[in-house]
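Listing S7. Sequence submitted for prediction.
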Amino acid sequence: MFLLAKDYFPSYKLENYMPLSLKQDIAWKNMRQSPANRILILIKTDGPQLGSAIGDALGISGEAARQQLAKLAEQGLVEPVTVGTTGRGRPRQLWHLTAAGNRQFPDGHAELTANLLVTLTEQLGPAALDTVISAREAETLQRYRQELENAGDLAARVESLAAIRTREGYMADHWRELDGSFMLVENHCPICAAASACAGFCRSELETFRTALGAEVERSEHILLGARRCAYRITPR
């Protein structure tokens, strides 16, 4: 039976998480600190904007606004759409938020995910959550096996797994140690809210790695235990 994080990690208490409303207030205050973020907020609240209108709204010069927009565009957060010409024949460009730009704003999905998992366990019992995690593990393992089947030796499989995990948002890296073992490091956890609510996700993930790689895998660093990242030492069986 999978345990909730509060059982698996005694120091963890879901109720100690900062309330969503407070987290959103802090996020909004932080976003308002820089001109670049103020531009994102302006476009988010008032819709697509001309560069000149952005300068006027923020009390900065048109040139300063264009410089900030160029930086945001380089980061993939905004993009211009041509909508005709000015009186001088120059194209008029309205600046829009990209999907990445929209993701800069507070989002309650993480807390919602954690709460749903806790509610699922409380209302339907631990077996229901076991079923969900087991189904996810089976689907993930099947997909990983398909992608790794032509990878060759363990070194190639670790490299392929790191690429898969990076595509899934884990910002993975890997290398070979002097003793011949391998390290797989994940600098981000896109399912951290779910993993925090139920330790079964982390345990399932570890078993998936072991089976998919056909190797011994031990977790040496763990985000949920306060580490900066999750790290796995991989050795041949």
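Caption to Listing S7: primary sequence and predicted structure tokens for the chain studied. Residues 1-22 have pLDDT under 50 and may be disordered. The chain has eleven helices and seven strands.
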